[in-house]
Design brief:
The radius of gyration is 20 Å and the shape is globular. The chain has one domain: MFS general substrate transporter like domains (Growth Hormone, Chain: A, Up-down Bundle). The longest helix is centred in the last third of the chain and has 50 residues. The protein is an all-alpha fold. It has 15 helices and no strands. Helix 1 runs antiparallel to helix 5 and helix 8 packs across helix 14.
Length: about 425
């Protein structure tokens, strides 16, 4: 196997292992602590430091990766996830509520740092590993990495619900910690030391991108991911558990199926976008139109739930449509950030962009528990529609995409 393809395979495999545990952890924490009597607001608080640390990690992680290399930040992320999972395994149900919440928030903070170090490193590696002269592979490579990651995150949701029902909270966490540790050791052993390291050490002032494309796309990304997490983190899982009376396994299975389908659409996005745009690559106009379509569909779904309850089949179908549109939005964004990222500062630009991504998730997380407690699923979905509309309006001002970045014929020509 050629070195670039081998290294891409190693990065992807490490990211897959991490992603499985990250998806499983979300379901384990949400469902385990819900059964212990935590309110929707308290459950949302458990994820606040996870998302806040993601903001800070992406801000500084890109600078760190440019200085030390992506291998260092990737393996550091996996090491921190191992520690976080082992720490969460120490939680006991008889602890005082305040102590338990504070401890879990702290462990989740470590996991948030780990998740965004790993994600930023893996996605930045794609740009570093695309061989010179075949830039047409960029959209395909990032689509495969992102789509497969989301499919496996869906498997992780199912795994979390299944493990909780089968072997319990503590044993599940210890098993996942062992798997991540093995993946981190393999990445440390197999990847080149200089992967993604900038030739010139960037200064602190380089944290904030000078590229208009990166800045505008980052603002759109903030609202796009807020639109998902405002219902995804707390509202829908608890709605199905409490209102539809689904079991742990059923809730985990639905969340898994949703994210897997979302990942499949992302992986297929080069072909889908080629058919939609007549063979040209995605542009800022593509991102704007997709976000506005997402906003319109979500607002329609919100009114289905207006009375506090909804036909389960209709709700599932509506969330499926949301998943397809959101996947296309996310895939186009993931391509555009690498298209706009500049040379040696790709890790810094991608880190800045994912700082905005994490900020949107933080906003959605903060709103998710409160909106579900106060307004039910209806309010969560109305807010989601508004955030998606904001992402679309912002994307209208994206600049032209550099023409040398992608050749959709080459992208779509490989299965």
């Amino acid at each position: 196997m050629r070195p670039a393809l081998r290294d891409y395979a190693v990065v992807t495999a490490a990211y897959w292992v991490f992603t499985l545990t990250d998806g499983a952890l979300r379901m384990l924490v949400l469902l385990h602590f819900h059964t212990l009597g935590y309110t929707p607001v308290q459950l949302a608080l458990l994820f606040v430091l996870y998302e806040l640390c993601g903001v800070l990690t992406n801000l500084f992680g890109g600078l760190l990766a440019a200085r030390l290399g992506l291998k260092v930040t990737l393996t550091a992320g996996m090491a921190l996830q191992t520690v976080a999972l082992a720490a969460l395994a120490a939680v006991r149900p008889d602890w005082m509520l305040a102590l338990s919440v504070a401890y879990v928030m702290g462990a989740q903070a470590l996991s948030g740092i780990a998740k965004d170090l790993t994600k930023m490193s893996a996605k930045s590696s794609v740009k570093a590993l695309v061989p010179a002269g075949v830039q047409g592979a960029l959209f395909r490579w990032v689509a495969v990495l992102t789509g497969s990651k989301n499919a496996l995150k869906g498997v992780g949701f199912f795994l979390g619900g299944a493990l909780l029902g089968a072997i319990g909270f503590r044993a599940s966490l210890l098993a996942m910690a062992a798997a991540v540790a093995v993946g981190g050791v393999a990445a440390q052993w197999l990847l080149p030391a200089d992967l993604g390291r900038a030739k010139k050490r960037p200064k602190f002032s380089a944290l904030f991108s000078a590229s208009r494309g990166v800045n505008v796309l980052s603002a759109a990304r903030f609202f796009l991911f807020g639109a998902r997490d405002v219902w995804f983190v707390v509202g829908v899982p608890l709605y199905f558990y409490d209102r539809a009376h689904w079991s742990f396994e059923e809730v985990g299975s639905f969340m898994a199926a949703w994210v897997i389908a979302y990942g499949v659409v992302q992986s297929a996005s080069p072909r889908l976008v080629r058919g939609w745009t007549g063979g040209s690559g995605p542009t800022g106009a593509s991102a704007a139109l997709l976000a506005l379509l997402l906003a319109a569909g979500t607002l329609g779904l919100a009114f289905v739930t207006r009375g506090g309850t909804a036909d389960t089949a209709v709700l599932v179908a509506g969330l499926g449509v949301f998943g397809v549109l959101f996947a296309l939005n996310s895939a186009v964004h993931s391509y555009l950030i690498l298209a706009y990222a500049e040379g040696d500062r790709v890790a810094v630009d991608v880190g800045f962009y994912y700082m905005a991504n994490a900020g949107g998730r933080l906003l959605g997380t903060l709103l998710s528990g409160a909106l579900y407690a106060w307004t039910g699923l209806f309010g969560s979905l109305v807010c989601s529609a508004g955030l998606a509309a904001a992402a679309g309006v912002i994307a209208v001002s994206l600049p032209p995409v550099p023409s040398v970045t992608v050749d959709l014929e080459a992208v779509s020509g490989e299965g």
